[in-house]
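Hi there,

I know you've been waiting on this one. I reran it after we fixed the sequence typo, so this is the corrected version. Both the input and the resulting structure follow.
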Amino acid sequence: MAVPTTLTLLPGQLHMLKEVVEKEKMRRKARSSSRAPSSPLSLPLVGEIPA
């Protein structure tokens, strides 16, 4: 996940977007490491909605 280089944004907008990308990376990393191991009885979720 990264900020596209083809976007035409003001410096402040670009800075804010980069911060959001970094926070989302951290959120996803924490979320994936905190998941409990799946049991054979659990069903995979289809089309998870981001929090």
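Quick highlight: The chain has a mean pLDDT of 79.

Best,
R. S.
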